[in-house]
Amino acid sequence: MDVKLKCIECDKSFDGGAINRCVCGGLLDAVPDLESLRGVVSKELFDKRIGSREFPYTSGVWRFRELVNPIVLDKDIVSKSEGNTFLYSHQRVREYTGISNIVLKHEGENPTGSFKDRGMTSGISEAKRLGMNAVACASTGNTSASMAAYASLAGLRSIVFIPEGMIAFGKLSQALAYGAKVLQVNGNFDDAMSLVQESAEELGMYLLNSINPWRIEGQKTIIFELVQQFKWEPPDWIIVPAGNLGNTAAFGKAFYELVELELIDSIPRIASIQASGANPFYGLWKNNLKELEAVENPETIATAIKIGNPVSWKKALRAIKLTCGVVEQVTDQEIMDAKAIVDASGIGCEPASAASVAGAKKLMEAGVIDPKERVACVITGNILKDPDATINYHLSRLDGIFSRFANKPTVIKPTLEAVKREVG
């Protein structure tokens, strides 16, 4: 089997290597030879691997290895049995959104607590296959946590560029604990992203942001697995938080390949949801612009999507067009209220994850989503990624946000009578 790296701008192809951009500056797709995969991959093959104890099929990514990286050998695969994340359905979420058939796919159940592990197992495995010694990324938190963990597992050096003071401690602690060299950049994420690209090229580090085509290949498996969980009959909508737009890009590519290989008959619509304070992709789509206009100083409590100049916007726009999708924005108030509902349902998520649920509610109320359609919201990160946001919401300490669903702790005297008064 063969895989080419192909430019999305000029169609120039490359045989591979440690490259993320074409000579023309365009982003690259990892393009498998789909013709050679016909008759090789099937629903039955992928279903047979569910629950396997054989490496690497314990992974919800490598279960689909032919569609992720068919040229990597077992010896180079670096896996923590990522994927295999659950679909949740809860009455609170149904009532809050007004959608009777809504489920949440919880990518926070991955080993380091976010969907990034799917892309990272693919990216780190390719780095190992290529014989790289060091990997690097810019991050608002989850990418750094994931890369540090997988790099350490692979025996590779990891260098993380983070915007100083703009990363939740739950995420920063992971990067430090897993042994990454953490560089705090005086600036925002977009400044860190520019610097890591320059540094990686100059110093020979393998860049593992979503600009890396192999990251996207791993993240496609969110869709592969979700469709498999739906018994190969996709829902009507896939709703996903949107920051650097790697997932939106990956989801479109996944659906294209599934249809081409006749594994599904229809393509769901993708709704890409941005925070209103970090919404360049929404502005592009809403105003039908030809080029993305960056948001210079993005601001949102949802730090994982606090990105003003997403590198994957062209791939993401392709995905929205392919799926007849939409782009929406939600406020921090809407994000935190939706998070409170998800949390109180026993599911839990970090703020950025709740953008998908907030977006589902908003799109239903606008008449874009029919309340009876089947909707799958992607929950991208674990609740413990940003505990400060959760605590401060329930203590009503978030500036500009009304804690509509606050669950404040109560101080009592150490007596049974005090307990009876509170508990009843």
Keywords:
6-stranded mixed beta sheet, 424 residues, Rossmann fold, alpha/beta, 4-stranded parallel beta sheet
Low-confidence stretches: none
Q: State the name of the first-level CATH class of the domain at 87-112 and 215-394.
A: Alpha Beta
What is the fold named in CATH at topology level of the domain at 87-112 and 215-394? Rossmann fold
CATH architecture of the domain at 87-112 and 215-394: 3-Layer(aba) Sandwich
Total count of helical runs of at least 4 residues? 17
- Please give the alpha-carbon distance between the first and last residues: 67 Å
Cα Rg: 21 Å
Give the beta-strand count. 13
Strand order of the largest sheet: 4-5-13-10-11-12
The rough form would be described as globular
Q: What composes the largest sheet?
A: 6 strands, mixed
Helix content: 25-40%
In what range is the share of β-strand residues?
5-15%
Mean pLDDT: 96
- Which structural class best describes the helix and strand composition? alpha/beta
